Amino acid sequence: xxxxxxxxxxxxxxxxxxxxxxxxxxxxxxxxxxxxxxxxxxxxxxxxxxxxxxxxxxxxxxxxxxxxxxxxxxxxxxxxxxxxxxxxxxxxxxxxxxxxxxxxxxxxxxxxxxxxxxxxxxxxxxxxxxxxxxxxxxxxxxxxxxxxxxxxxxxxxxxxxxxxxxxxxxxxxxxxxxxxxxxxxxxxxxxxxxxxxxxxxxxxxxxxxxxxxxxxxxxxxxxxxxxxxxxxxxxxxxxxxxxxxxxxxxxxxxxxxxxxxxxxxxxxxxxxxxxxxxxxxxxxxx
Length: 286
Fold this sequence. Notes:
Belongs to the FPG family. The chain is an alpha+beta fold. Helix content is 24%, strand content 21%.
């Protein structure tokens, strides 16, 4: 799943490529992907793209005051091309859910496809007059890289810190992968209770949120969209690396598996050498 650093890189790339271009067409190959009906996608035709921004993991394309908002969900991606096929999309013919054609003065040949792999569909596109009309954006917590962001007040909750970091209503943009990386850098158990963290633990967590995300943003910046997912995987220290050696202490990285996701951690760095148990055994170490 693309998270804040990858979405940020996509937004910067799209802003450079799209601003000033006119929308030639928005084609849909999946009726399910478009979650709104007013304004209609036809209202975008001929209008100028005036900027691209980010809200958490949402991409916001401003088209002269009407916004195309995209959430890539778990298996979605955005594929840019400088030469789109002339033929229109067919419903359900591929993993392409939608296509945006642009005219930069030389015809509607450039643009992007929004794709989604697998059968579990979560990709969403909205056409709205105000980004806040998208419920997911309206409910977002503060952006961790925004000026003035404070983590400490958000920790006054009796919930596992891993879950807190992933909750978009509390902190916008962090997902499964970067929460694993943040907790490893902070030397905290994923099952630690947020409101029970002591001063030293809070300080480590605050520092890790900033260092991990800012480092990832800089690493992703300027890379082609097609390289971002693989680049993200290569930069992970613990996430997705169960069975490998921890790059800090050399211990074996372990994981906890859930019904539809998993987390990875280093027992030496994060849990005092003790393995965490998953819900199948109902034993949790904090």
